[in-house]
Amino acid sequence: MRAADYLSATALSKKTSATLEALEKGETERLIILKNNAPKAILLSMESYEAMLEEIEDLRLTALALARLDSFDGKKALSHDDIRRKFDR
Fold first, then answer.
1. Is 39 contained in some domain?
2. What is the Cα–Cα distance from 39 to 43, expressed in whole angstroms?
3. Model pTM greater than 0.85?
4. Whole-number Cα distances in Å, 41 to 5, 19, 33, 69, 81
């Protein structure tokens, strides 16, 4: 992490508007907010936050698919043709 990625809570309270603008413009991806020189929070742009949520959801779905593959029994599976016959109208 670069020093520019850290911001004190005091500086944030004094420069809230400029800080939010820097995040919005993409000048910084995230800011770690320090209180008494200890990390207390992370400030992200909405774009970074949404990208993070998407990636987490992709990882969750991948883990679910891999778990299902482990328990997949091809003998019990229905073929594509079986499904089409069952649901085609």
1. yes
2. 11
3. no
4. 12, 14, 5, 38, 53
